[in-house]
Amino acid sequence: MTKEYSVPAGVETAVDGVDLEIGESEFLSLVGPSGCGKSTTLRCIAGLETPTEGEILIDGEDVTAVAPNDRELAMMFQDIALYPHMTVVENVAYPLKVRGVPKAERNERAEEAAEIMRIDDLLEKYPGALSGGQRQRTALARTIVHDPRAFLMDEPLSDLDAKLKVAIRKEIQRVHNRVNKPTIYVTHDQAEALSMSDRVAVMNDGRIMGLGTPDELYHLPGNRFVASFIGNPSINFVSGSVTAHEGDTVVVDLHGTEIEVDTVGVESAYEDIEIGVRPEHTHLARGGEEGHVEGTLELVERIGDRRLASVDTVEGEIRILVPDERTPAQGETVSVRFDTDAIHVFDGRTGEAVAHGELSKRHVENRSSDPGADRSTA
């Protein structure tokens, strides 16, 4: 699917050849920076925008030219927009009223949806008397009341505070597991996407840059953009060189340390590479350990039971997650060491992944073989 807009300077491509298939009970998130095309993609699926090229199929039926209200999709927006003059039960039942469902039936179905969202004790209250969380649950109940073919959610939690976000996130997951319908969820918040989704599509400039499970995107990113966007604190990038390329492996020189890494099938001369290492696989060298790069400890920030150390090096800022124990004083010269089995190698020209360390691959393999693994990632 492609979506273009006419602008004074010519044509602007908002969605550039997006190709997706969402499973019948899958929770898929579209995540990316502002203006990447994720909301436009969702609006095209909903029928609120018409694609310039391509088609949209639901259960094999082409609905590209079908009116939004005939697609049997439920959409929840950032602005929950409850009607202030209607009670909770009237707000929840309103989509059924528009469809001409008899009053007795729509009230019964509204009460069922309210029970699912745990607001059945609030049915006669008005929105002005509800807390933020109760209003959000009311909006969710209104979304699920007419048993749609799929749910579309466009940044529904962006206006909530951090604590309420976590609570409503759990409610959305609980409802998704109960109703077992496809859900397409748009967000710029990677924490939401990684914690809730079966799969995540990372978008940039109207294109899908990466598509996979949260663990696959975090531990085996397919390109530099996905590696840099997914993960908080963000990944470190350092320069390196390839000293040998033999069959399915490359030998990488990381500041004097040679590492053999399995390739991922990308055809490249590897003349220019960049190495990515997550902060949890980056350490302050101690006790005579030899480091890979030296720098000045600029800042130490507390993050839960660990601290985030920022070191100024010739490679730029290097971020390190260190245990909550004594760290060198700010301003000291320190030596930084990387876990060489957890590195990612990227082609410096294309940004495509060239190789991944064995630890990263083992993590994804272990998670995929565990049927009880939840949706969360590191």
TrEMBL record:
Query: What Gene3D superfamilies would the database entry show?
Result: 2.40.50.100, Nucleic acid-binding proteins, P-loop containing nucleotide triphosphate hydrolases
Major site of localization recorded for this protein: membrane
Biased amino acid composition, Basic and acidic residues: 358-368
Q: Which residues form the ABC transporter domain?
A: 2-230
Q: Which residues form a coiled coil?
A: none
Question: Listed GO molecular functions?
Answer: ATP binding; transmembrane transporter activity
Q: Does the keyword Membrane apply?
A: yes
Q: Where is this region: Disordered?
A: 356-378
The reaction(s) catalysed by this protein are: D-xylose(out) + ATP + H2O = D-xylose(in) + ADP + phosphate + H(+); L-arabinose(out) + ATP + H2O = L-arabinose(in) + ADP + phosphate + H(+)
Q: How does it sit in the membrane?
A: Peripheral membrane protein
List keywords of the entry alphabetically: ATP-binding, Cell membrane, Membrane, Nucleotide-binding, Translocase, Transport
Give the protein's recorded name: ABC-type D-xylose/L-arabinose transporter
Organism per entry: Halobium palmae
The organism's taxonomic lineage, starting at the top = Archaea, Methanobacteriati, Methanobacteriota, Stenosarchaea group, Halobacteria
